[in-house]
Amino acid sequence: MKEAIIEDEELGRLVVRVNLRAKSLVFRTKSDAIYVSVPSGTTMKEVKRAIENLRDKLLVARQRLNRPLIDLNYKIDAEYFKLSLAAGEKDQFLANSKLGFMQIICPPTADFSDENLQNWLRKVIEEALRRNAKSILPPRLDRLSRQYGLSYANVKINSSQGRWGSCSAKKDINLSYYLVLLPSHLIDYVLLHELCHTREMNHSERFWALLNQFTEGKALALREELKKCRTEI
User: Quick check: 161 and 10 in contact, CB under 8 A?
Assistant: First the structure.
């Protein structure tokens, strides 16, 4: 194998190339593809196993390449979180925030091309998303749990960009705060998906039958709709 192409639904194109000097698999994410350098003798099975082990990190790296510039034209207009930036007169940034809404007032001298400013703005927005998620998601999860008789142990909010949610064998549920950027029906789909894992830990036919039962037979359609949503700002 000198070169192989893998087309992945989530990651896009992966170009696998043999590097005679390589001692391990090396992944490099670029705008056109993810390039994988592998030692001679590496099998495609080993490559695919490595991709699955690194899937979450590769998704995050891929998404970061396509991040939009946060400036005065940047907006978030989601059902549960709305963000806008406006020009101010003072030489400092000001943030007005409440549940479901945030406005950042920017000084007239703000240089939005500055990478440090972009990173700071994202941290401010992400912290607002976290606060909103902590207020919105646990009560919604509890309501669905009671409605469908799917009990769980604990719920935590995290910053995952590779996964909307997860459920452990101990029935602990983790939810990404990026969920608040989704419309309500997809939020409920993710929450029900994780709640169904409290009964079926894998994605077996029984799992999908259970999830279908609680989504009016739309589980697969909702999954496809969710794949088109992005876990980033």
Answer: no
